[in-house]
Amino acid sequence: MTNTTLKKIADTLGCSISTVSRALKYHPDISVKTREKVLELANTLEYEPNAFAVHLRTKNSMVIGLMVPVIANYFYESFITAVEEESRKNGYTLMILQSANDPLIELANIKLFRQNRVSGLFVCTLPDSNNIEQLIKLKELNIPVVFFDNVPDQTGIYKSCIADELAANIAAEAILKSKKKQIIALFGDARLTITQKRLKAFQATIHKNNSTIIIKMLHAINSHDAEKQIVNQLSNHKKSTIIFCMSDELLIGAMKAIQNKQLKIPEEISVISISNGFIPKLYYPTITYIETSGYKLGKLAFTQMLACISGAIVVEELTLDATLVDGGSI
Questions:
Q1: Domains plus CATH for the chain?
Q2: Which of 137, 245, 274, 295 could form a disulfide with 251 if both were Cys (CB 3.0 to 4.6 A apart)?
Q3: What is the mean pLDDT of the chain?
Q4: pTM higher than 0.85 for the full model?
């Protein structure tokens, strides 16, 4: 394919480069007849604007960055899907990098986003990240950053979050309503803000309403770890036991343990989880869950990002509600 330029189009039509440029931009000073000729030839020659040149001229790369710990996560996948859809609709390209739960890779990724002068950046931070200040400094380069899911505690930054406390409260209330006597509560990495919020709210709701219920609090960093811990706990379980999982990844591990023990749900064990909504429907009966949609959060976060890019007044923290979806697992 030949590299078609504005000059080539102008020389072919016998007009100036500025006329071609304005015609391609539908400038009102250019006649309809001239514009149609330019557009027809540009289409025939497969003309494409030089994105790098446009970037230099407008100081807008039309690229939005997105960084997650790992892409292979149902919540992040759905968040990315929503952001990609909205980016495409609004003329942006999405640049996705994963930090692999490594602060050094996270720092290198921040540098790549900065070098590419992304128009904005979505970030889910790591539990032991030391790079928050580097992310906040991107504002000096007119690169707005929207933190999502696991967000820093600092004020004065943009955040799009799930209603973590509400989700945990709803789960705890559903458990209390079930009249179960023993809870195995499975939470994620204790260093994560999202874990801390959900755990604190869950415990507060349970203890406020029932001082006699027995709670076994566990932490797991992935589904394999969750499976091992639940297997150990199930050796002494009673039929009045319910397992609570704070995420889809932990639910997968817990369900493997339950299936390994060949326990029937809900006759021999009950299960409830905070979930993106896909994993609970893979089981029979469907697992009762509190929906925290990554897809809906992605849509919400993108509205916040567009407002930041446009320079509009932006709400610092947006929160997506959580809702209970009844299954047959309690």
A1: 6-49 (no CATH), 60-161+295-322 (3.40.50.2300), 164-291 (3.40.50.2300)
A2: 245
A3: 92
A4: no
